[in-house]
Amino acid sequence: MTQTFRGVPEWKIIDYLESVGGKQTNKTTVNAERWQASTKSTTVSIGPSMTLTEVTVKLRGEKEALEEILPKLKQKAMRAGG
Question: Which CATH number does 2-77 carry?
C-alpha cells in the first residue's frame, strides 16, 4: 500500500508513523510489530514557480493493522489550505 503526502517534511511523517506505534530503525524506515513503512522524499513543482515536498510512504504488513493506522496517519498529515 502506498500513500503520498505533500507539504509535510519527511522527518514529520516519520514522527507521525512513530506516534501510531512504529519505531524508526534507520533514516527512512519505521517498523512496528504488524507493519513496516519506508519513506522517500522528493520535491515536486506545482505551477511555474512553486515547489512542495512530497513524501511517499510504502506500507507493508497485516491488512488489519494497515487499515487501523492509515486513517490516523492521514489525519495527522492533513493540511488545511489558506
Answer: 3.30.1370.80
**Chain segment 4-44, per-residue pLDDT in tens:** 999 899 999 999 999 999 999 999 999 999 999 999 999 99
- Of the candidates 37, 10, 12, 9, the one whose C-alpha atom is nearest the C-alpha of residue 23 is 37
DSSP 51-79: EEEEEEEEEEE-HHHHHHHHHHHHHHH--
Going by C-beta distance under 8 Å and a sequence separation of 6 or more, which residues neighbour residue 5? 13, 54, 55, 57, 77
List the domain boundaries for the chain: 2-77
Taking the model in full, what pTM does it have? 0.88
